[in-house]
Structure formats: C-alpha cells, structure tokens
C-alpha cells in the first residue's frame, strides 16, 4: 500500500480533530457486528490535524511554560462568533475554512492570490512560543506555528510606495449569524517595517496542530509586542498601501484604541490599568512588560516616537 509522507499532505486532506475524535467515540459505542462488512466505516486516511516537520524557532519566548491548550481554545475574542469569551469555541465549529485564498495586492509589483495550501508550503513551519497580552489586562503563552509574515510579503515585491500593510478578516453572515458588537469585516493594519519584522508571525497552527476556528483558522497574524486585537484572525486580504489604513477598534473608539497599540504599562486604558496583568489560569497579577517583553527586538522600530501620544 502506498502511504504518503507527512510533508505531502495538503491542508484540504487534514481531518479536523473534532471529526476524528467524534468518529472514535461513535465507533466505540457501536457493536462490532454492526460494522462488519459495512462500507459506511470503510478505512480512510485520518491525519490528527498535526503539522509535520516543525522547526523549533530560536525566536521563541524562553523560560515560560505555555498555557494549557484548553485555556487558549476556550477563551477567545472573535466577535464574528459572539462577544463573550466562551462563545467562539461553541459557535465557530461549523466554520468552513477550505477552500481558502488570501489576496495580496496594492502597492506591490507582483499581486497574487495564495491558496491555503500554498501558504502552508511557502516556508518551513516554525513553532514559536510567544506571550500574548490582551488589552483587557489578561495574558497567555502559546506555542504558535507559522513563519515570518515577511516571507509572504517578499513574494509580491512591495514597491517604494508601500508604507503600510492593511489586513481584512473573512466575513459571511450566513456562516457568522452571531456576529455583533462591531462593524464587519474586521480590519487591521501595521506599518510596513513592523510587518516585515521577523517576530511578526503569519500563523497557521497552535500546539503543533492546525488552528481551530475560534483561534482564527486557517491563517491569522500574531504580533507579540502589540495588544492582542492587532493579531487579526481568518485573513482573506492583505493590501499594501501608501497611507495609514483604518483599523476596526480605532474606528470604533480612537480614544481607547490607537493605531500602534504597542503593549505599554505606562499608558492606561481609560477604564483600567495596563501596568499589571493576569495570566490565564492564575489568580495573582504580574507586572506588564514594555512591548510585552520584546523591547530588545522591536524598540528600535519606534526610536524618537512619543509612545504615549502614538499609543
């Protein structure tokens, strides 16, 4: 029998974890005699949503233990699937992420659309353990899987006019009937030099597996030195622009959510302090770190800027 090597699997061939777990539970409850000779349960290739051949990145956060998977997969901000933290894990499970394309356009010499399979194969997938800090003063440590966003952007050859990068989330009311609370589609943006920084991660997985829907499947951004809402989920469009693009939370309330949104313990949110945070699963609070602890890598991006005015 010919068996494919893991690297040859396409995203479309990966069986979601919920499918194979439910199938195993169902099979365990059915008498063997009922399955004998049945084509309904004929053998099929089952890949446990694992992402093969991961490289352990030197860019990982060191010395911090990741939160349990259950924390990361059940406590989410994803307003397309409800405004409560526990809703996305419940309401996003039927979200269809295949087929999927990401259009990269604007001030580029080689605009193109990437399928999710092309994105998965564009570069070796790295596992990076990053801290994430939410503007509501909670934090989490996650083993993300992906590669630097710059790898994708280099494929389209940004022109001299490109100064910013705009992102857009997929939105379909039929698939997201519980979407509420903000205007849709969700949009975000970075300066081009921020987007090209090695720490800015184009993300396709967590904990060695493909992203679950509530965490931004099939492809999202992770920018670990900024507040979590900058790390846009379920991306369908990336556009390089000459001017600063609109961003969802800045549009909604510019007094509370600036374009840059770098983690800064010295700039409080108008309704709560940013000087301390609570790690998911812990009762104690800990001091918030400037740039979420990534200052040594990214502080030069903001040299000479007033980081209280440009919050």
What's the arrangement of secondary structure elements?
Elements: H1 17-29, H2 32-35, E1 55-56, H3 69-74, H4 87-91, E2 101-106, E3 112-115, H5 116-121, E4 126-133, E5 138-148, H6 149-155, E6 164-169, E7 187-191, H7 192-195, E8 201-206, E9 209-210, E10 220-222, E11 235-241, H8 248-252, E12 276-279, E13 286-287, H9 295-298
Parallel strand pairs: 1-4, 2-11, 5-12
Antiparallel strand pairs: 2-3, 4-5, 5-8, 6-7, 6-11, 8-9, 8-10, 12-13
How does this structure look, described?
By secondary structure, this protein is an alpha+beta fold. It has one domain: Oxidoreductase, molybdopterin-binding domain (Sulfite Oxidase, Chain A, domain 2). The protein contains nine helices and 13 strands. A hairpin with a 5-residue loop joins strand 2 (101-106) and strand 3. It starts with 16 loop residues before the first helix and ends in a 13-residue tail after the last helix. Mean pLDDT is 88; it is low at 1-7 and 20-48.
Q: Cα-atom Rg, whole angstroms?
A: 20 Å
The percentage helix is 10-25%
Mean pLDDT: 88
Order of helices and strands: HHEHHEEHEEHEEHEEEEHEEH
Enter the CATH topology name.
Sulfite Oxidase, Chain A, domain 2
Q: How far apart are the first and last residues' alpha carbons, in Å?
A: 59 Å
> What structural category do the secondary elements indicate?
alpha+beta
- The CATH superfamily turns out to be Oxidoreductase, molybdopterin-binding domain
CATH architecture: Alpha-Beta Complex
For the record, the CATH class is: Alpha Beta
Main pleated sheet:
8 strands, mixed
Number of strand elements: 13
- The domain tally reads 1
Question: Which range does the strand content fall in?
Answer: 15-25%
Low-confidence stretches: 1-7, 20-48
**Gross morphology:** globular
Tally of contiguous helical segments: 9
